[in-house]
Amino acid sequence: MANGPQKLDMLKFVNTGQTYPEKREPELRTEDFQEIADRYAPKKAAEQAARCSQCGVPYCSTHCPLHNHIPDWLRLTAEGRVREAYEMSNLTSTMPEICGRICPQDRLCEGNCVIEFSGHGAVTIGAVEKYITDTAWEEGWVEPLEPGKSRGQSVGVIGAGPAGLTAAEYLRVAGYDVHVYDRHDRPGGLLTYGIPGFKLEKPVIMRRVDRLREGGIVFHENFEVGRDATLEELRNKHDAILIATGVYKARAIKMPGVGAPGVEEALDFLIASNRKSFGDDVPDFDNGRFDAKGKNVVVIGGGDTAMDCVRTSVRQGAKSVKCLYRRDRANMPGSQNEVKNAEEEGVEFVWLSAPKAVEGTDQATAVKATRMRLGAPDASGRRAPEPEPDSDFTLDADLVIKALGFDAEDLPQLFDCPDLSVTRWGTLRVDHKSMMTNLDGVFAAGDIVRGASLVVWGIRDGRDVTEHMHRYLREKARAEKVAA
Questions:
Q1: Quick check: is 131 in a domain?
Q2: Whole domain around residue 243: which residue ranges?
């Protein structure tokens, strides 16, 4: 901790270079699932925060989905006013230490830093954000969730991921009784079970959940809408409903052998690994199905989930780990920082390559693939990959992990609610002015509306939907009072 506030000049980027917290050596960090870098020491955090140019128009804030007051809390950190910096960051985000760890800053705030454009290297915004919030937890500055004066109304939140937890917190502070329903045995959604500990250690999530629970939010775990209650039954129980389930349906790939033993979905693999980290009994890990130890692993895909799978495989003791992706490095959707981390840890990237078949009947033994080239741009503007003639090759593979992204589940059928309207992509159709679905009092937010996206967008949507739900609930209470 810095010894009291101290006025420091900003604009240090000319003489002070960009320095991230030091990462552990690859051969050491791959032996466990702990985060690969510690947080800054106080002096180093202040030094890096002081590199901020304090722009009149801060592009970092503009390109942050939460529009965090980044220059303000950087200045406070540089001056040693860490508690005030934390309070400033907490104004716009319910999970700043989580965003500081897993946001793709290279594509958002840091990627749009003015001094990055000037060639001096971006301010290390994410690492400073992690530092100030972790310090706040240690120092006891993170205050308990204080419920507002009871309004006599209740809200049911379906899904305990970033959007659901954010809305639950704001609604509880506003004085509503909040019940969160989730299919898993621990809240957090993909934060808990989809993201490995080396990116986001599990106690970081659980302390946030504990704070919500202690603030009076009621969690119903192992609860599946459609099995334990229909959506209509929950509507009758609560004054409003928020659907924030995320998207969990794995995208399929059509090729021979894809159903062979040893070909697995990315999320199933990651959930099994994360459960082992919690100390759970995981039979399909113990019997070797989701354990990469001693195996040749091929991960198909180029997003952040694929990066999570390859780096998890290394830590499980895989014999070899290869990532097969049909485009080149510059056109992959995942974080470039994650690619670098994976390469340091021994992952081999097979760029411009697409799978054609999985070989092996009783057990996967290899992936047959073909080389690709980038052709004309497709409808999204990205250059479409095309097969190179006569370029087939084979990769040994005992474990093939499909990490091709996620789509929405069939919620009308799953929730036993055929009237619930969806788009042609299966996401929930909402009125974007109110974030309400076609069912009165049923709102939706997060990936189940926008499709698979970033955690920070889930937090933003959870924050935004709270305002609309609050307005609806006040009008409902007013109408009921008049009717009485």
A1: yes
A2: 154-248+407-483
